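FYI - complex with 3-isopropylmalic acid, inputs then prediction.
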Amino acid sequence: MTTYKIAVLPGDGIGKEVMPEALKVLDSVGRLCGIGFDYTHFDWSCETWLKTGQMMPEDGMSQLAQNDAILLGAVGYPGVPDHLSLWGLLLKIRREFDQYVNLRPVRLLPGIPCPLANKKPGDVDFWIVRENVEGEYSQVGGRFAEGTEAEGVVQSAVFTKLGTDRILRYAFEMARKIGRLHVTSATKSNGLYHSMPYWDERFAAIGAEYPDVRMDQYHIDILAARFVMSPERFDVVVGSNLFGDILSDLGPGMTGTIAVAPSANINPEKKYPSMFEPVHGSAPDIFGQNIANPIGQIWAASMMLDHLGETEAAALILKAMTDVLSTQNAPRTPDMGGRAKTSDVGNAIAEAL
Amino acid sequence: MTTYKIAVLPGDGIGKEVMPEALKVLDSVGRLCGIGFDYTHFDWSCETWLKTGQMMPEDGMSQLAQNDAILLGAVGYPGVPDHLSLWGLLLKIRREFDQYVNLRPVRLLPGIPCPLANKKPGDVDFWIVRENVEGEYSQVGGRFAEGTEAEGVVQSAVFTKLGTDRILRYAFEMARKIGRLHVTSATKSNGLYHSMPYWDERFAAIGAEYPDVRMDQYHIDILAARFVMSPERFDVVVGSNLFGDILSDLGPGMTGTIAVAPSANINPEKKYPSMFEPVHGSAPDIFGQNIANPIGQIWAASMMLDHLGETEAAALILKAMTDVLSTQNAPRTPDMGGRAKTSDVGNAIAEAL
Ligand SMILES: CC(C)[C@H](C(=O)O)[C@@H](O)C(=O)O
Ligand SMILES: CC(C)[C@H](C(=O)O)[C@@H](O)C(=O)O
């Protein structure tokens, strides 16, 4: 029996409520497929920060490095400035483990009311490939003339050729892998004078290596509009850290609830562990009621299995999830219009396996 | 009779097709309300750039300065790099005339098929206040290590206190003016380490001057999702140059067609002329067929009249526009599902006056 070492980081808020459901489902599928999981639990969170001024201990990264993968809940809580909690945990792990690919499906699932008119499962089904470690997310910059009338702040985005080329290449490879030979690039080269013309240039250069893949590019403003107006036209969408972030919340929003969407932070070379999390945040407003939707976390666990090479187990989770969603009387959390508890949904999916 | 000096800049592509319709409607409403328009036509465009290497002549800005307002079509055409055409004309005018407010309505109009399920006019109706002259749109930065493996590019956003405070204040004033005491700020302070925490800080500070106005803030990713999931909850949304840009295409996209949406580039102090344009671009793909929707340009003309203090004439155009859209057999351009020509729509609105 293969056993995987998994770092379990529920983090803050509803992260703590949805994580047990994902582990429940993992254990079920593990029994079914003869896979073992050796969990190490980490309670790093905003509470840690309030106590210690750090989101993780000094040797936190080397503790994580001993695992095959990381399953993360959500990070961020009122009382700790967002940029400190995120740069101290989520963004730190993405960067230091060179998880330069963020991969997110945008897929309309059965049984979820869709805010778009006349769409059914199958109509919205594509992938977002997001650059995950550089670009607009950057600590380069700072304040000037602080305390005077001339005060202000500079925020510098840094795009490297290495970082840009490898994410673009991943998108083209992904298009081939899923057999949908079409990549759409998010740009804003009309407004952002230096970064996006460079991005476009690299998109053209890397695209030339994939003559079999059709290329499209749109400015991020009109691209966001087209997501809503004609989601059918997308297959693989590639974007910078910020643009990918925006599109990969908008996409799940369009499909009814961001609570079901997963996010894979991948180091494709497997030099470091990759990290899997739901797209949603820690949702302080609903924390404590046990009504958070665990499906994003469960789908993230499925993506983790896929990454570990356990494709059959990954597919089984996805199928159980879809089966439950397709069932008329299945438990649904309030975000999907139901009254079920977090654990009801987790139980239903674990049983469906 | 008051006569206004108007600089008319059709620009590129369909800008040239929709502009005559707006002038037609302006002339009609002028006759009705006793307002005169003294048009000066400027043919500055990407063709100018191809001939001269500049988007406008050396004394272009002082020619424009002699007008009470500028009516612009669209800028940008294949063959001229977008960042050169835009920074040479549209963005140059916004900046040099200190049009620091970009004001855009997001409003579902009658008779336009809406991509959102179960929405009717009235359900989607709010304003976007966008910072228009600084922030992410910046020429600060450049390439490093060009031609080597270490190549890359830095793009610096600059936010000043002056620039941030005045746009936030405008948003709060706007909320009071329209009697909807609620402002939502677009942020991304969890990822953008320097700029957005500063933006949030200023939002809190300026908001404290408006205790009667309810304040909300969302990260841009989840905000985009919420636009689609619950557009009813917005009244005035304020965002940086880039975030405002994205939201103000997404908004109109949600209401069926970005072709009807207008954009006002305002210098509130009236030290310089303000500029009015449709949200859509030059649309090279449909240029030359006379099928572009002129409603965005016509609505922009209405916003221009509003700014000039001709509120009655402005309202008449809006009413004529809405009346035509509400009429079952009114001419509709292909983007609205019809087969009408650009000029049919312009004629119908001019006649409805
Ligand atoms: C053409 C482009 C530079 C412009 C912008 O990004 O401001 C446009 O998208 C707009 O919104 O007016
Ligand atoms: C929490 C935040 C820093 C993060 C991001 O912007 O990357 C989140 O929105 C995401 O998409 O994973």
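Residues A 86, 90-91, 245, 263; B 190-191, 221 surround 3-isopropylmalic acid (ligand 2) (CB under 6 Å). Chain B has a mean pLDDT of 96.
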